[in-house]
Amino acid sequence: MEFKNIKGSIVALITPFKEDGSVNFDALEKLVERQIEGGTAAILSLGTTGEYPTMSHEEDDEVVACTIKAVAGRVPVIVGSGSNCTATQIKKSIDYEKMGADALLLISPYYNKANEEGMYRHFAETADKVSIPCILYNVPGRTGCSIPISVVERLSKHPNIVAIKEASGNMGYAMEVAQFCGPDFAMYSGDDDINIPIYAAGGSGTISVFANLLPKESAEIAAKWFAGDTAGALEEHLHYLQLMKKLFIEVNPIPIKAAMNYMGLNAGPCRLPLAGLSEKSAAVLKAEMTKLGLI
Q: Are 185 and 158 in contact (CB under 8 A)?
């Protein structure tokens, strides 16, 4: 399915694991179905929430193939093909396009970082090599570097770069990105707790962790906003705000997997170096979920 002018809630899907650490493909298929039934506008596979750094390339391919097959063309599938090696990112991007991905999520180079021209070429040269749309991913809390606004401006004019997932948590940065948004370049929130401010700044939706837990509610908040019911969207967003924040009480995706397991959604454990949620954090998360009637 073509990824074009998508508005709404896009889930950054977890990768469910069995207790022995292997990928739980049966659970993955069920989670995909639950997302589509909940009104998710698109599905992101192999994002940060999907724990791709701890999976082999072979596992990456198997998860992508399973996700694309389960979705069966009903919503677009975005695949995270990013790497801090541009050559690797290009190869993975070409491979995922051949596998049937509808769009790609490209992260800024982490650890080695990049100077301004290198940052631009990291994204532009990847987008040059594929024909499906590419989405920039700005998450300096993970990568140790932010995509310079000047580079976002240049990349927003690239014919095959259609959006940015903005996950810096910095509304000042988001407001500068908003200058480049229009019919050919969109901004998606990468932090659930500030989805509404991002929407108000011209964002087109969210690439959401929260949607793993409550896909219908995440989709409804976005739908209300884009239908003009901004007050209703804000009210519902505020209803779940503390839960959204507590899903980051420890490093993502530890809390979201724990929350899903509390609801019987069979997310399984995380892979090391991500250990299970601490007892203290688990008590806080369970209390909020109990307050909302989720467990």
A: no
By the 8 A CB rule, do 155 and 161 touch? yes
What backbone torsions phi and psi does residue 117 show, to the nearest 5 degrees? -70, -40
* Closest C-alpha to 209, from 260, 169, 164: 260
Phi-psi sector, 169: left (phi>0), alpha (psi -120 to 50), beta: left
Minimal CA–CA distance to 155: which of 181, 191, 188?
181
Among the listed residues 194, 195, 210, 198, the one whose alpha carbon sits nearest the alpha carbon of residue 253: 210
**Helix (H) or strand (E) run with residue 43 in it:** strand 42-45
Catalytically active residues, by annotation: 137, 165
Q: What is the CATH number of domain 8-227?
A: 3.20.20.70
Type of residue at 200: A
Quick: pLDDT tens for 183-192. Answer: 999 999 999 9
User: Are the beta carbons of 207 and 190 closer than 8 angstroms?
Assistant: yes
Widest distance between CA atoms in the chain? 50
pLDDT in tens, 200-245: 999 999 999 999 999 999 999 999 999 999 999 999 999 999 999 9
Q: How far apart are CA 76 and CA 64, in angstroms?
A: 13
Q: Are 74 and 40 in contact (CB under 8 A)?
A: no
The structural domains of the chain, with segments of one domain joined by +, span 8-227
- Residue holding tokens 């979705």? 71
